Structures are given as structure tokens and as C-alpha cells.
Amino acid sequence: MTSGTSPFRDGDAANTPSLSGAATPEASGPPKSPSAGATPKPPGPEVPPKSPGPATPSPSALATTRAAAAWFATAVALVLLVLLIILILQNQDVVELHYLGFTGSLPLGTALFIAAVAGAAVVAIVGVVRLTQLRVTARRTRRLDSEREKKP
User: What domain count does the chain have?
Assistant: First the structure.
């Protein structure tokens, strides 16, 4: 067999392989309906086939890794720290503070920084308390479920 010959006979359309995207006389004409007298079905929403396995992301989808998330968080923290340094440097005026009977003088930027750190500490403490509550509740629920499974 030479490269110019085909294993299929000329005119044998059923046995001729078709290439995807190739222009053939059949492909360039209007689509043929299965039965001549039947009305065509209106186009409906295309439903993707269900795959038995887990969904795999497309190759063009961006994969977020822990390292990428850590770098992003580091960059955001760096920007916030620069903004905080600018705040402290632009507010060097000494102010007098009164808190629960204590009196003192402090640069305004430093006082604002201390207030921000105290607010973040309060938020962190409340978050730790809530997470602890959720963990205790989840542990209790798992223990009760395992006890129910043991008892027939």
C-alpha cells in the first residue's frame, strides 16, 4: 500500500473515516432530519453528561495552593503594615489620654496603633471562644452518635 491509496473503496461513505472540522459535502449542507415528516424538536438546555468520578477542574483553571495563599496573605499584610507606618508617622502629635483613672501622654499614632491591637485581640479572643464551643459541640455529637450506633 502506498501513502496515496486508501484502504476504503471510492464511494463507500459508510466506511470512510471523517476528520473533525473537515469540510465535506454532507457537513456543509443543511442537517438531515431523521424522518422527513417529523417536526424538529426545539433546542433545549444542554445538560452535561454525569460522570461517575469526582469532577476534575479544566486545565485552564487556576489552582490555588497553600503556598500561593500564604504569599497572597503576606503581600496583603505587608501593604497593611506600610499603611500603618504611614499613619503613625503622620500623627506624631502628643495627646493626653485618660483611661480608667490612668492619665498619660502619648503620640496619637502610637495610641491609635495600641487601640487597633487591642481591638484585634478582642476579636481573636471571641473567635477562639466560639471555635472552642463548636469543637466541644461537634465532639459531643460524635460521641452521642457512636453510642447510638453501639446500642442496637
Answer: 1
User: Which residues does 105 contact at the CB level (< 8 Å), separation at least 6?
Assistant: 94, 95, 96, 97
Residue 132 lies in a domain: yes
Contact assessment for residue 90 and residue 109, using Cβ atoms and an 8 Å cutoff: yes
pLDDT, tens digit, for every residue of 65-116?
888 889 999 999 999 989 988 988 888 899 998 889 889 999 998 888 888 8
Query: Which set of grid coordinates corresponds to residue 126?
Result: 471571641
Q: Does residue 12 sit within a domain?
A: no
Question: Is 50 inside a domain boundary?
Answer: no
Provide Rg for the chain, Cα atoms.
36
Q: Note whether 105 and 113 are within 8 A (CB).
A: no
pTM here? 0.46
